[in-house]
Amino acid sequence: MYSLKCFAVLAITYVITVLGSHICLSEPAVTCSCQLQWQLWQNGCYRLTPSRHSWDDAKKACKDMEGKMAAPRSIEELKFIVEMARKVDRDYVAWIACNDLEVEGTWKCDGQEGREPFLAWNTQQPDNAGNQDCALISALHNDRMDDARCQAQLRAFCVRQAACTHLPTQPRQYCLSTDTHGRLLNSTCLLDHNIREFITQGVAACGSACAKEPGCRSFNIKKTEEGKKVCQLNNSTSSEDKDKFQKTHYFCMYSEVCFG
Ligand SMILES: [Ca+2]
Ligand SMILES: [Ca+2]
């Protein structure tokens, strides 16, 4: 059992104040926006390609629109793109950036390297019927994934970074995990969600880096054998992936960035 305790860190002084049972807000104080025809979700902008393409050409089509082909990383993201697609076309069929071109049966998704890819297959899929190596999501497949021949002509889900502005006046908070007695957990971290790591000064510097990094949802501070602190930026949170919130045999502190 663990809970999150929030610490307010004032941007100017970097003084850490314990706020006790302060509620950790999950909505960050950032405003993001997308260009016309793109739909905002978290800090990304999404849309379907206007025309149909083979999987390879669809990738280029997304790139031509200054985005890349999307591959949902969570059930929430999947739900969002599915609802978006249904508004455009009730019977939509669209590529996502996952394939098993390299090794038959081993699916890889763009942007999900170094972790188990998020795969939400429809029942009885993937079936590789007639050699199908590219993944799509369609209304016909219950808004779930199917493997299809990469040459099929379909629309595609594209994603690009939203334009986000952090509201500067609000103090940032860092929510550190504690046990049921309120003691800080210093050997429990969120594993396998690391998007970037580097040597850091401490919580404030690492949290500040997380707040600036697109896609950073939480961070770990672990100590190396030489006593250096390493800041690891994570693309998920302990509540989203409870299984990966694990005890470590080294000093490791988990924290989330919130805005109070
Ligand atoms: Ca296949
Ligand atoms: Ca199939």
From TrEMBL:
Domain C-type lectin: 41-159
Annotated signal sequence range: 1-20
Classification via Gene3D superfamilies: Mannose-Binding Protein A, subunit A (3.10.100.10)
Domain of life the protein comes from: Eukaryota
Domain Apple: from-to ranges: 175-258
Xref: Pfam families: Lectin_C (PF00059)
Residue ranges of the TM segments: none
Keywords on record: Signal
SUPFAM superfamilies: C-type lectin-like (SSF56436)
PANTHER family the record matches: MANNOSE, PHOSPHOLIPASE, LECTIN RECEPTOR RELATED
UniProt-recorded name of the protein: C-type lectin domain-containing protein
Lineage: Eukaryota, Metazoa, Echinodermata, Eleutherozoa, Asterozoa
